[in-house]
Amino acid sequence: MQSSKRTGNQQPNRGTKVSRREVVGRAAAGAGALALVGKVPAAFAQASDVIKIGFVSPRTGPLGGFGEGDPYVLSLARNALANGLGSGGKKYKVQILDKDSQSDPARASQLAKSLINDDKIDLMLTTSTPEVVNPVADACDAAGMPCVSTILPWESWYFGRGGKPGQTPFPFKWSFHFSFGVAQFAQAYISEWSKAPFTTNKKVGVMFPNDADGNALREHEIPLFEKAGFTVFDPGGYEDGTTDYSAQIAKYKAAGVQIFTGVPIPPDFAVFWRQAAQLGFAKTVKIQSIAKTGLFPSQMEALGSLAYNIASLCYWHPTFPYKSPLTGKTSKELADGYEKSTGRQWNQQLGGTQSLLDVGAALLKSTDPKNKEGLVDKLNAFKVTTAVGVVDFGHGPVPHVSTTPLIGAQWIKAKQGSKHRLDLVIVDNADDPNVPIGAKLQPYS
User: Fold this and answer.
1) pTM score
2) Distance from the first to the final alpha carbon of the chain
3) What CATH number does residue 297 fall under?
4) In what order do the strands lie in the sheet with 50-57?
5) Residues 80 and 145 in one domain
6) What percentage of the chain's residues is helix, strand, coil (to nearest 5)?
7) Strand partners, 207
8) DSSP 393
9) Which among 326, 341, 441, 439 is positioned nearest to 388, based on CA atoms?
10) Which residue among 197, 207, 275, 402 has its CA within the 20 to 30 Å range from the CA of 51?
């Protein structure tokens, strides 16, 4: 775990003396977490005056790309909440206790239980893939802890946890999820592929692993592709960590696949696509639309020239016309600030993480933050505009779910003189016409 650094707006209370025993105790309680400040001022000394927010995401491991921007976005949230949060005429100090799941579902579950039972949090926030979100949400439902999550297909969150349409009573009383779903995936892909300024044979090869994401998309997305007139070739599920994809590649080649999509974890896709290039499949692909990987610059740069013109989908982009209600920053300001602060290229999870914190802060302001039943009651019809757009739990495809858009995008070689190797440009906005299109889709091969 990474330790925290106090930001410029988070100065200690010089007028309050703290004993060595208290300092040691607080350091131990905060180990592995990033708290809002090094100590809680005397005015907020009682637990009833302090709101604790748990935050679990993957900062390291195979899914670590999702957590690259978390320290920066969390620092913005802590600065915005440095003077406390007002709710119901009362002022609360806020602590955000963030944990790294290390891309391990078992660890994610253990961290959630520790935050609930040991740290006594008031609200759980979690993000990025079912390997992180689902075990955290399960722990919250078991413990009666309000939980809000984002950035995985809602079907992976709902069906992946055993949910069934019309189930009574609803099995996930305490957990809520906002994110894109299979319909958003399919709509974005079909629009992008159909409007391409070049022709294809409409034969689609899919790479769906045997996991929550892959199984959800296999069951629900393939029929939508076929209904839209595409022929789908699925060689079957595979296990994460596979190192030889020659059998699958041979099947794609034999089928004459010209469009490719899938949801492999980043290391698997890197191995697969290099083998696809070596075996001659990559050069026959006209549209390469990948998800779950291909989201972040660091993942794409690792592929070298093989990354140029890989299409993707984005759930946030610096050109999104929305701003964070928590920080007041526009999408462009969020991206520019991250690049200036870290020296790294912006990535779309900045908006995903910011939107989660937006929802959490807005919720806590709207009702008694210490009443867990009240938080859940409020969430059932909660609506707020965030960095990624509108989140509305009152109008979801199933209870406790709000869908958010996916936008068609493509990685292109950066212009000469750019400090980056690649740029992600918007090529289709069927799922949210408010997002401006920046370029036309180019053929991969």
Assistant:
1) 0.83
2) 41
3) 3.40.50.2300
4) 85-87, 90-100, 50-57, 123-127, 147-150, 175-179, 401-403
5) yes
6) 40, 20, 45
7) 262
8) G
9) 326
10) 402
Count how many domains the chain has.
2
Residues 371 and 397 in one domain: yes
Spatial contact of 315 and 347, defined as CB atoms under 8 Å apart: no
Residue 300: count of CB within 10 angstroms of its CB: 25
SS3 86: strand
Q: Residue 73: inside a domain, yes or no?
A: yes
The per-residue pLDDT for range 174-200, each reduced to its tens digit, is 999 999 998 888 999 999 999 999 999
CA distance 127 to 114: 17
Q: Can you give the residue range of the structural domain that contains 111?
A: 20-180+319-403
pLDDT at residue 363 in the model: 98
My answer on whether 94 and 42 are in the same domain is yes
Whether 330 and 232 map to the same domain: the answer is no
User: Which residues have C-beta within 8 Å of that of residue 305, sequence separation ≥ 6?
Assistant: none
Angle between helix 372-379 and helix 349-366 axes, rounded to 10 deg: 120
Q: Both 229 and 126 in a single domain?
A: no
Instruction: Quote the CA–CA distance of 437 and 34 in Å, as a whole number.
Output: 38
Length of the chain: 445
**For the residues 80-85, what does the mean pLDDT come to?**
96
Q: How many CA atoms lie within 13 A of 258 on its CB side?
A: 12
Asked if residue 147 and residue 31 are part of one domain, the reply reads yes
Query: C-alpha angle 436/340/346, rounded to 5°?
Result: 40
Are 422 and 300 contacting, i.e. CB atoms less than 8 angstroms apart?
Answer: yes
- Are 302 and 333 members of one domain? no
**Residue 424 β-bridge partners:** 411
